Amino acid sequence: MRANFLVLANFASQLTNGSPVLVGVFRGIAVASVPAQLQPFYIATEIEADPQEAGEHRFDIQMIDEDGVVLYTNQIEAEFRQRPDYLPNYMYFCGQVFVQRTIERAGIYRFDLRWRDETLAEARLEIELAAQA
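Above: the chain's sequence. Below: its structure in C-alpha cell form.
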C-alpha cells in the first residue's frame, strides 16, 4: 500500500473519467493574527494497492502541530478490487477539510495519511503571519 501523492488545495474534485482535478495547490497559509480559525480547504490523495491488498481498508488523515497534538482527524474507507493480470489498484480521494480547532500559533503543521500503523504520506502546512502594510 502506498500513496502516490497527498496535497492541499483551494479546490479538488474528480472528472467522470476518474482524473483528479486540483486547483490552487499550496503549502502555506498567511493569517492576519493568531489565534486564527482556518478557512476550509481541500485535501487530495491517490492510494495504490498491490494485488494482494485487495479488499476494504480504512485510512486516517490527521493534522498535527509541532508538539504532536492532533488538531484534525478524518477517516477514508476504500475498497480495492482484484484486477486481472495481477495489476495494482488505485483510489483517488478528495474532500474538504474543516479544522474546528483554533490555531494558536504560527508554525509548521503536518497532515499524515495513515494506514494501520504506517504513515503512507505527509503534507506540510506552514501557517505564518501576513505581512502588515
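Residues 8 and 51 are 28 Å apart (CA to CA).
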